[in-house]
Write a structure and sequence with these properties.
Blueprint: H1 2-21, H2 38-48, H3 51-56, E1 65-66, E2 77-81, H4 111-117, H5 120-136, E3 141-143, H6 166-181, E4 186-192, E5 205-207, H7 210-217, H8 219-226, E6 232-235, E7 239-240, E8 243-244, H9 249-259, E9 265-267, H10 276-281, H11 310-317, H12 323-339, H13 354-367, E10 369-373, E11 388-391, H14 416-424, E12 428-431, E13 441-442, E14 445-446, H15 457-469, E15 473-479, H16 502-512, E16 516-521, E17 536-539, H17 547-555, H18 577-580, E18 590-592, H19 601-607, E19 624-626, E20 630-631, E21 635-636, E22 642-650, E23 656-666, E24 677-686, E25 691-698, E26 705-707, E27 712-714, E28 718-727, E29 730-739
The chain binds beta-D-glucopyranose (BGC).
C-alpha cells in the first residue's frame, strides 16, 4: 500500500514537472502547431493535401506569388526582387506598376559596392536591413542575393553580383543570407549557375570544364547553401550541358541537392522553365514567370498552363509521372512556408527607417573605392576650398530606377549633386558636361526628372571647361547608367569605354584644372585612356538612396575610404581572359569558358598583364605599413591548419581602415594553378600610429584544387607561399610554409 502511494506521488510529481516544462499540447493538427518540428509539420500537411492541391503550390498564381492551400489554412508565398531593395508592386498578372502609394523603399548599395567593403559585418548589416524591409512588406522570399562570378566586364548585370573571386563572394554572401532569413524571409540566391552574361541569356550553353565549375563558379552558391543555410535558390536562364539551368540534372539534382544536401526550394527564374518532363525530373520545385508562352506573351492568367501545372497534373493522373517526385517538391515548398509565411516567431520588420538609411550610408562609405589620388587632390578640404565645380550627368541622374528587375521606387534618393550641396553649400556650382540617357521611365517606374538638354556636345564641353577653370576643385561624376547596354539586365555592354564622349570631357577638364577628381558611377570596370592626366579617381558604384551623402562623406574626408575592388579593371578588353581568347561573343549560342580557372586577376597574373587597377586595390587617406608575415610552423602535417600572422600599422596622420589580404600560391603543384588566390581577408580599423596583429588560419581545404578526373578536392604536399598585402598587386610580405 505504502509503495503504491509513493509510486502515485512520484508519477503525479513527474506529471506536474512535465506539464510546467512542456508547451501545452496542441489541440489542432500537427502542421498548425509551431511547437512541433518543421519536418513533422511538413509530413502532416503533405498527408492532408489532394493531388490538385499539391500541384497548385508548385507554380505561380500571379507575377510574384504562388498559391497556398486555403482549405488547410496554408497561405500563399510572396516573392519580391531583390537584391538591393524591395521592388514596387506590379499588377497581379501584368508587369505594369500596381500604383500603390506605400511601396517605396530604401535603396541599398548595389552588391558590387557591398563586395567592395570586404567587410562581413557590412554584409550582415545589409542582410538585416533589407530583410526587415522585405518582412515589413510581407514578402516571404527575397529574390537575391546574386553571386554570379564577374567573368567579363561587358556583362550588363555585374552590378548585381559580388565580383570575380569565389572566396570573396563566398565570405560576403553568408552573413547577408543569415541576416535576411532571421526575419522569416527566405533569400533566393541567384542565378544558379553560369549566368555570366546577359546576351542570349535564354539561349546560350555555358561550356565549362569541371575544375573551373567547382573552383570558380560554384563556391559562392555552395557557401550560401551550406554556411548561410539559404532556403531557396533561383535557377539561371542559360543552358549547361544542353539542359536549361532551371531544370538541370547535373546542377540541381547531382550537385545542389546531392553533393550539397540542399533542403530548400529551387525556383525557376521568370520564364526559365521550358518543358514539363525536365521540370519534373531535373530538380525544379517552384515555377515562376512562364505565363503561357515565354516571359511576357500569352493569355491572361495562364498559370494553369505552366509546365508544372495542368500538364504535370495530367501526367500524374494518367500515371506517367510519379507522386513521389511531386511529394519531394511539395515537401520543399511546405518547409519553406513553415520557415517563412507560417513562422509565427518572425519579427514585424520595418521600412524606410532612419536605421536603414544609416546602414545604406555606412555600407556605401566602406564600399567606395579610391582608385588614384596623386598630389592629395582628395579629400577636398572644406575649411579652405572656395568654388567647387561639379560636372557630369551622373551627378544629377537618379540611378535607383532602371537596370531591369532590380529597379526600385525609392522613398528618397540623394543624387551626388544634392549630397555635395548638402555638405558644401553654395560653393558647389554645376555644369552638365555631356548628355547620356535622358529617359526617366524604366520598368514602369518614372523618375519624374527632366534631363532634356539642347546644347551641342562641343558647347557642353566648352561650358564645363569654362566653369572648371574658375573653380578651386573639380568633381566630374560620370560613368555608366542603368539604361540598356549599360549596367542593365537583358543586355550586355558593347565595349569597355565610357559612353557619351565622356573621355573627351574628362581630358578637357584635366587640362583645365589639375585639381580634378573623376567619380565613376558603375557596376563594371571602364577603360580610362586619360588616367595619366587625371590625379584622382574614385569608383562610386550604384549606392542607392544615400548616394550623394556617401560620396560627399568620402570626397570631403568625413569618411576615410576603405573599399577595395572586388574585380579587376583591365586596361583594355583584351587583357581579360575571356576576351583575349575570343571566348565571349554576344551572338554565340555556345559559350566556351576557354580561360578556365583564369578569371580576373588569375588571368592577369598568369599572363603578366598589368591591369589598370588590380583586384583588391583601393587607397586610403592614410598609409599602412606591414611588418613581416610570420608562420607559426614552417612545416605542418597534411590536414593541419597553418597560422600566418602579420603586424599592420597606421603610419599616416588620420584614422583609417585597411583590408589585409591573404593570397596563397602553390609553389610545387603537379597541376597548373594560379600564381596566387585569395584565401583570407580582414578589415581592421587603426588610429594613427596604432598597430594591430592580424592572424589568418589557413585550413587544409583552402590549399586544395579540384581534380576533375577523381571528382574530388586534392591537397598536395609541398611548399606554398602566403602573400600578404594591401591588394593583389601590392603584396607587402610573404612567407613560405610546407605541407608534409
Ligand atoms: C530576373 C530575375 C528576377 C526575375 C523577377 C528575371 O528576369 O532574371 O533576377 O528576380 O526576373 O523579376
Amino acid at each position: 500500500m505504502k509503495n503504491t502511494a509513493r509510486l502515485i506521488a512520484i508519477l503525479s510529481l513527474s506529471a506536474s514537472v512535465a506539464s510546467c516544462c512542456q508547451a501545452p499540447k496542441s489541440e489542432g493538427p500537427v502542421y498548425l502547431d509551431d511547437s512541433q518540428p518543421i519536418e513533422a509539420r511538413v509530413e502532416d500537411a503533405l498527408s492532408r493535401m489532394t493531388l490538385e492541391e499539391k500541384v497548385k503550390v508548385i507554380h505561380a498564381q500571379s507575377k510574384f506569388s504562388s498559391a497556398g492551400v486555403p482549405r488547410l489554412g496554408i497561405p500563399e508565398l510572396w516573392t519580391t526582387d531583390g537584391p538591393h531593395g524591395i521592388r514596387p508592386e506590379v499588377l497581379w498578372d501584368e508587369w505594369d506598376q500596381a500604383g500603390w502609394t506605400n511601396d517605396s523603399c530604401v535603396a541599398f548599395p548595389a552588391l558590387t559596392c557591398l563586395a567592395a567593403t570586404w567587410n562581413e559585418d557590412m554584409s550582415a548589416l545589409y542582410g538585416k536591413s533589407i530583410g526587415e524591409e522585405a518582412r515589413f512588406r510581407e514578402k516571404d522570399i527575397l529574390l537575391g542575393p546574386g553571386v554570379n562570378i564577374y567573368r567579363t566586364p561587358l556583362n550588363g548585370r555585374n552590378f548585381e553580383y559580388m565580383g570575380e573571386d569565389p572566396y570573396l563572394a563566398s565570405k560576403m554572401v553568408v552573413p547577408y543570407v543569415q541576416e535576411v532569413q532571421k526575419n522569416g524571409v527566405a533569400v533566393c540566391v541567384k542565378h544558379y549557375a553560369l549566368n555570366n552574361q546577359e546576351s542570349k541569356r535564354h539561349e546560350y550553353d555555358a561550356v565549362v570544364d569541371d575544375r573551373t565549375l567547382y573552383e570558380i563558379y560554384l563556391p559562392a552558391f555552395k557557401a550560401a547553401v551550406q554556411e548561410g543555410g539559404a532556403w531557396s535558390i533561383m535557377g539561371a536562364y542559360n543552358f549547361y550541358k544542353g539542359q536549361h539551368a532551371c531544370h538541370n540534372e547535373y546542377l540541381l539534382n547531382d550537385i545542389l541537392k546531392g553533393e550539397w544536401g540542399f533542403d530548400g526550394v529551387v525556383i525557376s527564374d521568370w520564364g526559365g522553365t521550358h518543358e514539363t518532363d525536365q521540370a519534373i525530373t531535373n530538380g525544379l520545385d517552384l515555377e515562376f514567370g512562364t505565363w503561357t508562352d515565354g516571359l511576357t506573351m500569352g493569355a491572361t492568367n495562364g498559370y494553369d498552363a505552366y509546365y508544372l501545372a495542368d500538364p504535370y497534373l495530367e501526367k500524374l493522373r494518367n500515371g506517367t509521372a510519379s507522386e513521389d517526385v511531386l511529394n519531394d517538391k511539395v515537401r520543399r515548398v511546405l518547409r519553406l512556408m513553415f520557415r517563412t509565411a507560417m513562422n509565427n516567431d518572425k519579427p514585424a520588420g520595418s521600412m524606410c527607417s532612419p536605421e536603414h538609411y544609416d546602414a545604406a550610408r555606412k555600407i556605401a562609405g566602406e564600399g567606395i573605392v579610391l582608385l588614384k589620388n596623386d598630389n592629395d587632390v582628395l579629400p577636398i578640404d572644406l575649411s579652405s576650398a572656395g568654388k567647387i565645380a561639379v560636372i557630369g550627368e551622373n551627378a544629377i541622374k537618379m540611378m535607383t530606377v532602371g537596370g531591369g528587375s532590380s529597379s526600385l521606387k525609392v522613398q528618397h534618393e540623394c543624387t551626388p549633386l544634392e549630397g555635395l550641396i548638402a555638405a558644401a553649400g553654395d560653393r558647389i556650382v554645376y555644369e552638365r558636361g555631356y548628355v547620356g540617357d535622358v529617359s526617366g521611365s524604366y520598368n514602369g517606374v518614372v523618375t519624374g526628372q527632366d534631363l532634356s538638354e539642347s546644347r551641342s556636345e562641343e558647347q557642353l564641353i566648352a561650358d564645363a571647361v569654362a566653369l572648371a577653370k574658375t573653380a578651386d576643385a573639380v568633381i566630374f561624376v560620370g560613368g555608366l547608367n542603368k539604361a540598356s547596354h549599360q549596367d542593365c539586365e537583358d543586355s550586355d555592354r558593347y565595349h569597355l569605354e565610357l559612353p557619351y564622349a565622356q573621355d573627351k570631357v574628362i581630358e578637357a577638364l584635366a587640362e583645365a584644372n589639375p585639381n580634378l577628381a573623376v567619380v565613376i558611377i558603375s557596376g563594371n570596370a571602364v577603360a580610362m585612356p586619360w588616367i595619366d592626366n587625371v590625379n584622382a579617381v574614385v569608383e562610386g558604384w550604384y549606392i542607392g538612396s544615400q548616394m550623394g551623402h556617401a560620396l560627399a562623406d568620402v570626397l570631403f574626408g568625413k569618411v576615410n575610404p576603405s573599399g577595395k575592388l572586388p574585380f579587376t579593371f583591365p586596361a583594355k578588353l583584351e587583357d581579360n581572359g575571356a576576351h583575349a581568347l575570343n571566348a565571349y561573343d554576344p551572338a554565340d549560342l555556345s559559350v566556351e569558358y576557354k580561360e578556365g580557372i583564369y578569371v580576373g586577376y588569375r588571368w592577369a597574373e598568369k599572363q603578366n598583364i598589368k591591369p589598370l587597377f588590380a583586384f583588391g586595390h583601393g587607397l586610403s587617406y592614410t598609409d599602412f605599413t606591414y611588418g613581416d608575415a610570420e608562420c607559426a610552423k614552417a612545416s605542418v602535417k597534411a590536414g593541419s591548419n597553418v597560422i600566418v600572422s602579420v603586424d599592420v600599422t597606421n603610419s599616416g596622420k588620420v584614422a583609417g581602415k585597411e583590408v589585409v589580404q591573404l593570397y596563397i600560391g602553390d609553389d610545387e603543384s603537379s597541376v597548373d594553378r594560379p600564381v596566387k588566390e585569395l584565401k583570407g581577408f580582414r578589415k581592421i580599423s587603426l588610429e594613427p600610429g596604432e598597430t594591430k596583429t592580424v592572424t589568418f588560419t589557413i585550413e587544409p581545404d583552402m590549399l586544395k584544387y579540384f581534380d576533375a578526373a577523381k571528382h574530388e578536392w586534392v591537397l598536395e604536399n609541398g611548399k606554398f607561399t602566403a602573400y600578404v598585402g594591401s591588394a593583389s598587386d601590392d603584396i607587402r610580405t610573404t612567407v613560405q610554409f610546407e605541407v608534409r
